[in-house]
Design a protein that fits this description.
Blueprint (H helix, E strand, L loop, with lengths): L4 H8 L2 H6 L1 H4 L6 E2 L9 H13 L1 H23 L20 H16 L5 E5 L5 H13 L3 E5 L22 H11 L5 E5 L2 H4 L7 E6 L4 H11 L3 E10 L3 H4 L11 H13 L3 E5 L4 E6 L5 E2 L3 H12 L3 H30 L3 H13 L10
Parallel strand pairs: 2-3, 2-5, 3-4, 5-6
Antiparallel strand pairs: 1-9, 6-8, 7-8
Helix pairs in contact: 4-5, 5-6, 5-7, 5-13, 6-7, 6-13, 7-8, 10-12, 14-15
The structure holds S-adenosylmethionine.
């Protein structure tokens, strides 16, 4: 799993934690390693939620980030306009094309990229009415990064590879998108880049830590990769929509030459001789990490899901603390009963006296009843 660098350092610097979570202490890279140690289930996540946050500022801050970000995403979802009044496609009847539980992957990844010192802006290609842009603008604001929002703001272009989509589908006009980001996001963090990618991305000259694409089409993905991939920072990552777990991924972590973004990436990376690994995330999104051929992606959906859902209960941490205290109380009750039994049964005067002293301190020794 990926973790913020300062959390890994915290584990490495504590001999007991280093031994207990040796898989975490062995992580030397953000994205991918040639033979990552698999750590058992969610033991480190449990540790962070139960104890770690009381011991480490880095853990506290990360859990708070996940909980508050996910909560904001859900509130945006709650109030964002839901209906596309100019729908042209059965899939654009809704004005929202992504989901909070899906975008938390981007948020956690960006937090980790930031902690590992990966420089650069975030770009969203494919904005529609601006739902995902609203969510990501909060994350960029938190991390102090710019969010570039690149779209035709006229919907999809005509295409010759996928008859499912046609020109003008998923249209969000720029004024409408700007208003949505003003209402639900952090507009001051956002730069707009208007136009179809075959022209608007030419001459792009900013450095990127994350390339997030939600563009549906083979041609659009090709235009984006051609113009933007050279600007992706070392250790920067790609997340793309329309990458389906059961359709687009090989068992070796590559993308298949199927249709749309998956086909475009598989063709582009092969042509350019770029090695990479890809895994499905949730809701039809996938993560693509340029890396060495023998490396494996560290990101784990199960771990994201676990943390996301546990942090979602806003009082999760309090509930954990409560449960621990209840366990502690049970333990001490048992110990006190053992002590009383020792006091009653021992014939050794010194032991009886020592037990009596402790019971007296606890207010449990009463002369008349002899305990
Ligand atoms: C599925 S929608 C994006 C949904 C959005 N991310 C959300 O959360 O609701 C696809 C978007 O990609 C844009 N798009 C696709 N291909 C494009 C291209 N070649 N140039 C510019 N915009 C493009 C469309 O205009 C549309 O806004």
């Amino acid at each position: 799993m990926i973790y913020p660098k300062n959390i890994i350092e915290f584990v490495k610097n504590d001999p007991e934690l280093k031994e207990r979570f040796n898989g975490i202490a062995a992580i030397t890279s953000l994205n991918a390693m040639s033979s990552p140690q698999m750590h058992d289930a969610f033991s480190f996540e449990e540790y962070m939620l139960n104890e770690g946050h009381t011991q480490s500022r880095a853990i506290r801050k990360y859990l708070h980030f996940i909980a508050s970000t996910y909560s904001i995403f859900n509130e945006i979802f709650q109030y964002f306009p839901k209906e596309n009044l100019n729908s042209t496609h059965k899939d654009d009847v809704s004005a929202i094309g992504t989901a909070p539980f899906e975008l938390i992957y981007h948020a956690m990844y960006l937090y980790c990229l930031d902690s590992w010192g990966v420089e650069g802006d975030v770009i969203e290609c494919g904005t529609y009415k601006g739902f995902s842009a609203c969510c990501l603008s909060w994350v960029c604001d938190y991390l102090g990064r710019r969010l570039i929002v690149a779209d035709s703001f006229e919907g999809l272009p005509a295409n010759s590879t996928d008859p499912y989509y046609k020109k003008g589908d998923f249209c969000g006009q720029i004024d409408e998108v700007r208003a949505n980001i003003e209402d639900f996001g952090k507009i001051e963090q956002v730069d707009f880049l208007k136009g179809f990618y075959n022209t608007s991305l030419q001459g792009f000259d900013r450095s990127l830590c994350m390339l997030w694409m939600d563009v549906d089409l083979y041609e659009s993905t090709m235009d984006i990769l051609t113009n933007l991939l050279p600007h992706l920072a070392t250790d920067g990552v790609i997340i793309s929509h329309e990458l389906f777990a059961d359709r687009d991924f090989t068992d070796d972590g590559l993308l298949k030459d199927t249709i749309g973004p998956s086909k475009a990436m598989s063709v582009f990376f092969a042509e350019q001789g770029i090695t990479y690994q890809a895994i499905p995330l949730e809701n039809g999104s996938g993560l693509v990490v340029p890396c060495k051929a023998d490396e494996k992606i560290l990101m784990s959906c199960d771990h994201v899901r676990f943390l996301r859902d546990r942090c979602r209960q806003s009082d999760a941490v309090l509930m954990q603390q409560q449960a621990k205290l209840e366990r502690d109380i049970g333990h001490w009750q048992h110990e006190v009963e053992k002590l009383m039994e020792i006091y009653r049964s021992t014939v050794d005067f010194k032991i009886k006296q020592a037990a009596k002293n402790i019971l007296a301190k606890l207010g449990l020794y009463r002369k008349q009843t002899d305990v």
